[in-house]
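Notes from the 1:1 (GR / supervisor)

We went over the backlog. Supervisor wanted to see one worked example end to end before approving the batch request, so GR pasted a single chain during the call. The sequence is below; no edits were made to it. Supervisor asked that the structure be written out right there so they could see what the output format looks like.
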Amino acid sequence: MKTAVRLIALVAVVFAFVPGCRDHMPHSFTWPAGGNVQQTHPKPPEGGYYSNWDPYAATIEVVPIEALNPVRSQHVLIATVRDKDGNPLPNRRVEWMISDGVGSFVEVDESGIRASRGYKVDNRFAVTHTNNGGHVLTRGNDDPSDDIKLERGQTWAVITSPVEGTTHVIAYAPGIYDWTKHKAFAQKHWMDSAWEFPPPATNPVKTPHKLVTKVFKHSDHKPLPGIEVTYKLLDGPAGGFAPDGKTTVKVKTDADGLAVATLQQTDAAEGVNKIGISIVRPEDTKCCRPAMPIANGETTKTWIGPKIAITKTAPPTALVGQNFDYQIVVSNPAQVAATNAVLTDELPDGIQYVSSQPEAKVNGQTLTWQLGTVNPGQSIPARVTVKGKRTGEFINPAVVKADLGLEARAQAKTVIVQAALKMTKTAPAEVLLCEPIRYKIVVTNTGSAPATNVKLEDKLPDGLIWKGQYTTVTADFGTIDAGQSKQTEYEVTAKKTGEFVNNATVAADNGLTAAAKATTIVRQPVLVIRKDAPKVRFVGMTVSYSITVTNNGDGVARNTVLVDKLPAGVALKSASDGGKDAAGTITWDLGDLAPKASKKVSVVVTAPTIGTLENFASATALCAKASTKSTTEIKGIPAILLECVDIKDPIMVGQQETYEIIVTNQGSAEGTNIVIECTLPAEQEFVSATGPTKETVDGKTVTFAPLKSLAPKAKATYKVISKALKEGDVRFKVSLTSDQMTSPAEETESTHIFSDK
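Structure output shown during the call:
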């Protein structure tokens, strides 16, 4: 016997030191076999059942753990053997077993040239080995999207079933010594079902749309009635399912295997609805069959609506009493017809109607055409002949309206000229206090002779100044020929907020005059920033800041930007509303804040150290800014972990056992006055003890003097040595108390004492 042991050891040494040895058990040692494949139950090496003969193999896992497939299809199970660090191991034997239910192995991983390579023993038992490198397992078609990629340390088996039911699969790695980790389990549910989800579709707005899901047998394509199909409106325009308008509806397939639901819009709105679909086989209480999910999917519904557009043109100038035409074109650029279209043209006072084509219904200065339906891509023209009764600039608006609230507007401008000056003055309707008001003056000679010595005078209203000191603006246009225009632009500044009505006049020789005015409202945004933060948090906890920016002024705070400077050392977890982090500074582009409007954002951080966090935030906008800060105190807490292990187990009567006790401060603050008390079982007696403090012994109780402090993340180790007196499965008890604990922490360690007598 000793000679045989030496021979085995010698062989092991030779194999361990041959060139090319790996840092793990070689294939032949993992599961030795010679000659032809022997399709019998595999056996470990001599004595393998009584030792950890493959110490590297630690765990086995199988994916997927649970899945559903149609009957008569194939399903691939992938097993991975890993070491204690989670690294995949090659050349490890895996035994595949179908323990219960339907199903058979049809193919397994038989790659390799060794006699011990994988093989299928029968339809319910097979053996494979994990691979040395990556492989790609194809399904025998030209579609690479359904290929299965295998990595190093993985192996596979393929199962199928011609009938419905559940296949229970065990993957067993005999090289793993730990019985709790050498098996993995998987379930495959087989169902004779297939389905067709409704395809994406496009409909006119406000029209009902039917969604049809077809469920049928995978084997013979016969319909499956009574299957539950749930439709859920996920996003897009508001709507619901008939008959009650709810966003979720559950229907069962009919005798043709069809589950039909009707989607209706709440309002006519263009957009895309995403609809979630789930298919479930309902519970059958008669045969004790539980409900089973079959499939989940999505489809889309695109709603398109009609559009209406209008253009209107006219000559830029015309003489008093001269006929000229407005050309109006109504069109529908959409793919859906616009119905009940009505065109209305409001002639301005001073413009006289002459005729129209097609003929309009005339009511005073209002012209109306009943256009009816405007088909997709169709254009309908209208011509209006008019003449001006006096000089001036005439803007002629037209509007077309149709069903579903469609509306479009257009206008045309014509200047009716005569021997006279015409003046226009434009300015922004609103500005902020820090912005200039830019006026534009245009003087036009609408007569037939030159206007000479034309001069501008603009007396500014109170509160406006020009060039920092003047209250009157003047300009000399000189001579303006007939039909000629001259213009000037200038900027003034406001010293206060309010509404400013500015009148300007031009005068020329021969008593020619013209006047114009412009109204501008000067506003001022006023930003106020508020920051809410907790007063106290502990190390490692999250600190949530809430920041609110409010515009208390009467002007829009344009291009508002909020900046939050995080305290040093904190870690950002999240920033709401698209806040961008750059080296601890969070920035939000809040856009424009209307008067009295507010914008609220939040920031969440973690504080790794004890201290006081000061967080500064500021908001800026055009003509406004504000800032604030908050303070949070970060405190720490100790968290003491107690662990106890016996060094030898089992031990013989008369032998000594060493119990190692480890105390770890997992918290963020130190623990103080830590006391360890150990209680020996009756089957043992005290021998000795060591630790960071002195022990005292009272019978079976060993008490260590208080450890004054234990820093965060620090450890303290105690050892108690005892002697076994008699047989038994005993418990060594450890109790821990500290200043910060309201109740003791306790651990017990079991030790088996035996006798060979």
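Supervisor's comment: Residues 1-38 have pLDDT under 50 and may be disordered.
Batch request approved.
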